[in-house]
Structures are given as structure tokens and as C-alpha cells.
Task: inverse folding
């Protein structure tokens, strides 16, 4: 094991997995009928210690916590969509965030993940690149001030907020991320590094990891298949079509070399979650198989 990967030791980072290997929360039609119980059992069997939340999870917090505890799993993150860039949604966005925060605290989690979905193209059956929003200066101001407010709410509860850049949204490219980071308070707003989304957008995940190493609060490890990225661009496909054609896959597969990315995180003494994610069609990519593939790859890179 190298000195860099020693810095990403089990006492510094935790390995999680997103439920989007088992079904898709954005597109419920992408589903193989796998139950919540089977999914979380697969996660534990594959060797992960945490997981994201999803739409098939029990609504009752006590029931959910018991199911996760039984399998030795913790909550790595929830998801809250924000709508600061559209009219009359600021208070509703804050209220939804506070509701999520309360649930995550009850589950023993400490991480909160948000992304701005105002006018996003990622849920629409349209060209995900051509139709993604470009924010005006007032929209940027509304977004960044809103994120600072959410970050303060999280901080006062002893929790950490990380922003997830995302395909089809107004914070999709490296330039968007740079503006967001420059315009928010680093004490309250961290960056969620999603290697797959930034590569899909056309930018370099390694350069992003190096640029914001001291600001990264959460990590999604997701690879892409470059030939599908090209197809989405050239044919003007939607985000859903990209997923169905297999644009995303897990570390250890696809076109991203994660060794230097993990090395950059280790060099920056990153501490927190490393969460495997691959929004794949479970009818085509057996979730447990891909979860185990990712865990084996990380064991090879990290040495544990």
C-alpha cells in the first residue's frame, strides 16, 4: 500500500453504495422488481458499510433503522432537491431540507446532499445537453445565498452539507462548479465530487478533485462508458436514454481511472464517505455482480 492510500484508511473513510444499482429513483420504470430487503442485503454481502436512501425504503424511520442495523449498514446520505432558481420556492425548499435533516439525524447520519433542479432537463425526454438551464445572475445569487442558508442550518445541527453537480442542471460543468464554489461560504457549503457526472459533462474528474480537494465533503465514485457519452452528445439523447444505453457503470469498469483520483483525495487527507454509484438498468447489469466488482476494485486500489 502506498503512502497516499494509507491516508484513505478505514479509520478515515467509509465505503458506501447507492441504491441506484438496484433501481432508479429518477425513472421508476428502470426497475427489475428488486425489493428493499434484497437490495440492502446485497449491499452488506458485497462488503459495504453504508448506503444512500431510495424510494423503496420504509417510510417509518424506526423500521428503516432496524433493517439497516440488522445488516450492519449506516446511512451515507439522503438527497434533497433544491429549487432556489424558480419563483416562490425558497421557503418550501428550506422546509423540505429541514424535514430530511430531522430524518437523517434520527437514523444516525451526518451528511446531507443537495442539488438545484430548477428548470433541469435531466427528467425530460429531451436532449440533456442542449436543454439544460443556464442561470441568470439573479438566479445564481438566489441559489448561492440559499445554499449558504442550508449550510448554516446543517452546521447548527452538527451536520455537513455537500452540493452535487449533476447532468442536465444549471450546475453541470466545471465552469458552473467554479462559480458555485467561488460564490458560497466554504465553511457551510462543501462539494460532492461525482466522478461520473463531471466526466459525462465533458470535464476531468481528476482535475476537479485536485482543484477542490480541501472543499470536497462527499464523493460518488461512478464511471462512464465513453462510447455512450459520445452517442448521447451526437444523437441528442435524453438523460434517461443515456442511462438505459449504459452511460454509467461502477469503478473497475468503464473509462475512468480511479487510482489517481483516490490518490489526490488521499494526498489532501480526505475524510468521509466514498460511495459507489452506477445508475444502470438492473435488467441488464446484475446489481450484486456490479457491487462486488466495485468493492473488489476498491480493495485492490486501497488495500482493504
Result:
Amino acid at each position: 500500500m502506498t503512502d497516499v492510500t494509507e491516508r484513505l484508511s478505514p479509520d478515515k473513510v467509509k465505503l458506501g453504495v447507492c441504491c441506484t444499482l438496484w433501481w432508479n429513483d429518477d425513472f421508476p420504470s428502470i426497475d427489475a422488481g428488486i425489493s428493499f430487503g434484497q437490495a440492502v442485503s446485497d449491499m452488506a454481502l458485497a462488503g459495504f458499510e453504508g448506503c444512500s436512501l431510495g424510494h423503496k425504503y420504509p417510510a417509518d424511520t424506526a423500521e428503516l433503522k432496524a433493517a439497516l442495523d440488522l445488516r450492519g449498514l449506516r446511512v451515507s446520505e439522503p438527497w434533497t432537491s433544491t429549487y432556489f432558481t424558480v419563483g416562490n420556492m425558497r421557503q418550501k425548499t428550506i422546509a423540505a431540507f429541514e424535514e430530511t435533516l430531522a430524518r437523517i439525524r434520527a437514523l444516525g447520519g451526518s451528511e446531507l446532499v443537495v442539488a438545484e433542479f430548477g428548470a433541469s432537463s435531466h427528467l425530460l425526454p429531451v436532449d440533456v445537453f442542449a436543454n439544460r438551464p443556464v442561470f441568470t445572475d439573479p438566479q445564481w445569487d438566489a441559489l448561492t445565498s440559499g445554499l449558504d442558508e442550508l449550510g448554516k442550518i446543517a452546521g447548527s445541527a452538527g451536520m455537513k452539507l455537500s452540493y452535487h453537480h449533476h447532468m442536465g442542471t444549471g450546475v453541470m460543468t466545471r465552469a458552473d462548479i467554479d462559480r458555485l464554489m467561488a460564490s458560497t461560504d466554504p465553511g457551510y457549503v462543501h462539494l460532492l465530487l461525482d466522478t461520473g457526472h463531471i466526466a459525462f459533462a465533458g470535464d476531468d474528474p481528476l482535475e476537479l478533485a485536485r482543484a477542490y480537494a480541501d472543499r470536497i465533503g462527499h464523493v460518488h465514485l461512478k464511471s462512464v462508458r465513453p462510447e455512450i457519452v459520445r452517442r448521447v452528445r451526437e444523437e441528442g439523447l435524453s438523460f434517461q436514454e443515456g442511462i438505459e444505453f449504459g452511460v454509467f457503470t461502477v469503478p473497475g469498469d468503464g473509462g475512468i481511472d480511479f487510482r489517481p483520483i483516490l490518490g489526490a483525495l488521499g494526498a489532501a487527507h480526505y475524510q468521509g464517505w466514498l460511495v459507489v454509484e452506477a445508475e444502470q438498468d438492473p435488467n441488464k447489469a446484475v446489481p450484486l455482480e456490479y457491487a462486488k466488482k466495485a468493492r473488489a476494485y476498491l480493495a485492490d486500489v486501497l488495500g482493504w
Remarks:
- The radius of gyration is 18 Å.
